[in-house]
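Hi support team,

I submitted a single chain yesterday and got back a structure, but I'm not sure I'm reading the token output correctly. Could someone confirm the output below corresponds to the sequence I sent? I've pasted both exactly as they appear in my results page.

Thanks,
R.
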Amino acid sequence: MTDKQHEVYGDHISNKFNDELMDLKTEFLKMGGMVESQVERAIQALINNDGQLAEEVRTGDKKVDRMEMDIDEEATLIIARRQPTARDLRLIISVIKMVADLERVGDEAKKIAKLAIKLAEEGQAPRGYLEVRHIGDHVISMLRDALDAFARLDSTQALRIMKEDKRVDEEYQAATRSLLTFMMEDTRNISRCMSVMWILRSLERVGDHACNIAENVIFMVKGQDVRHTPVEEAEKVVGR
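Hi R., thanks for writing in. Yes, this is the structure output for that exact sequence:
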């Protein structure tokens, strides 16, 4: 355990309490790795017209849902058994919130997989796949970095992820404008392009959830809620 982790998790008389907190963290990171893989595989299924892989992503969402419920239950039991205060309570409450974000990332991966199946059945690849790959890589990187910031309790890295969210929004808007132009040029492309636009929307939402996780990391480390605040204010919190 690093000095920073020691500071946030505290030093408890009960080794069992320490173990419970570390197990909670481990299970959260395990779920994070799973949903990250779900998003990657959904994009791969789309790009490669791989309906079977897309179906695997769809069915895999049930495991993500199960993990969310298990982690929520364990967090609730820790609160009931240990009645944690201060930093420990921030950790547990943050995990409960972040697990909900991970579950929603899994939902977005499932949506992408469903649309990948639909597009694979239609055959011809529409415009927008290049943008899907680009934005997909961007938000997967954000999610991975958010999980890493949690693992290392790194509020500085969490702040960088908050800043990245604006770039993803700009990339999403540019891709949407490009697809709208393409649809107006040839109305036969409307159905397929609309499916790609929904996929891009799901990816943009993944970036939002990564940002939410980053905000909770800052709350865990600094003890101040930076949700719904400008990035400039978050910078001041992290710099303290």
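A quick pointer for reading it: The two ends are 23 Å apart (CA to CA). Let us know if anything else looks off.

Best,
Support desk
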